[in-house]
Write a structure and sequence with these properties.
Layout (H helix, E strand, L loop, with lengths): L1 E3 L2 E3 L1 H40 L13 H9 L8 E4 L5 H15 L10 E5 L8 E4 L4 E5 L20 H12 L12 H11 L6 H7 L2 H16 L16 H4 L3 H12 L2 H6 L25 H15 L3 H9 L10 H10 L7 E3 H6 L10 E7 L5 E8 H7 L4 H8 L10 H8 L12 H19 L11 H9 L3 H24 L21
Parallel strand pairs: 3-4, 4-6
Antiparallel strand pairs: 1-2, 5-6, 7-9, 8-9
Helix pairs in contact: 4-7, 7-9, 11-13, 17-18, 18-20
Length: about 525
Amino acid sequence: MKQYLGHRISLSTWQAAYEKNQINRFIKNYLERTYNIVRQQRYEKDLDKQTHAKSWETKKNIDKATQQIMDRSSLHQYFSKIELDNDVDLKAFGYFEDEVKRLMSRMPLADNKNVLRLRKLGNHRALGMYIPSLDTIVLEFRKQSEVRIASYSDTVGIRSFIHEYGHYLDYHLSKLPLSLENNFKPLITQYASNLAEFNLPDRKVEYLTTPTEVFARGFELWSYESAKLRGNLIGREMEYSAVEYQAFDSGLRERLFNYFDQIPQLKEVKPELAIDTSQFEKVKPLETKEDLSDAHVLKDLSVKALQRWTDNPEKLEQLISVTGTSMQMNNPNRLLALDQLQLEKLPTMVPAQELKQLKITPDQGIHKVRGFVQKLNKHWISSEMYSLPDLLKQAKGDLELTNQLKALDKPQKQYNQEKVTKLLDQTSLKFKDSDNTITKAFKRAERYILLDSLSGQVNRRPFRFTNEERELLNKGVPELLKVMYLRITEAASKEEKNLQMKLQPTISKNISLPLNRSKTIKR
């Protein structure tokens, strides 16, 4: 016999009641799961009605300036297509583009890139939309003078970006929407129960409890409260006091955050999301180990440095501009020094061991970078490198020290520029009418590097792509710029040896007195 709510009942009666409850629970779960699917289908069907195909085709009457911005946008690496309305504030889009890049470099990406459209959404009464059938994120993006006023503050559609991206992740991180999987269903049930206490209209409750809406809203809260993401692409604290967010009470939020923490793609990126995307970040110098003779480690560092300097045509131009006389080819010292100094022009660098031989101890504050020197066994080992201009400032007033430091800036063999140019026209670098735009860009960059290296020009104009070349490079895949740099430097290095055999160097004078290593420099 069992005691049950103060009444004595038989074991068989209790077992029968328990089995009946199991049936009830099964039916209840089945109906909830089925209704979630029906509700989601109804939600998607309603979106399709609002966004019939012709309305979401790229417009044909886009302004030329707007079209150029669309074509050149660096966001193509994250989205399959970018579309802007003519009414979009192009200056504001520049800030938006920078912020989205900083966010998307950390966000998980699915196999299928989605479309990003910035439009007026007045007819839809929404700041943002995600249309699953078109795999498209649409954001309200009006000119600042046309921005609507919300109850809490001025706002624009870009604040709904995280919410809409939550929809995208819901539909793409698994074969079926994550919001329809069994482990998310209890969260929807609890959310619907909590929401019922606010006496909202049935139509609004129906919308708010749609599985993908619960998922996207939960993703917002996880991003803001758990991952600590801040910026213009996510709501602010006051916005999360609205009813639809209050329904995630403390107990439900704990379960919700634990759910998102268990999604592998989100668990991996969570530590990187604790940033304010509206603020530019300072690039940290590459980390180096004490001994980097390992070719694999050195290659990894070089790849990272190249990635920083080839992620857009403007940076690649700077890198090409210093690759001739200012940066010795195939020498990791120069590449890593350039990455760490973050300068447009690379100063002459002096290895620490040469200063040590001269009995020079650089003052604190003199700029120093981690570089590499080559041993006889062809391995590279780490070494401190100092900026020669900084050292010369330190030695100001000490003529003997100044002369000896200048002697470290070893002269290069120089060749007559006109002869170099004529020889280049006899090589594969000669321009042909049949060359396409990208081939011409490759040849011009390679010729620039060779002329810079062989003729020893000091005040040469920096390298620049033509507008046509820049357009094509912006449209290409991100890896194109890095591959381009590697190919032109490798080709220039080989061609340089051939040209040196055919040329006689001109007389090159040292910029200072001969270095006398036997003297001890007095400080």
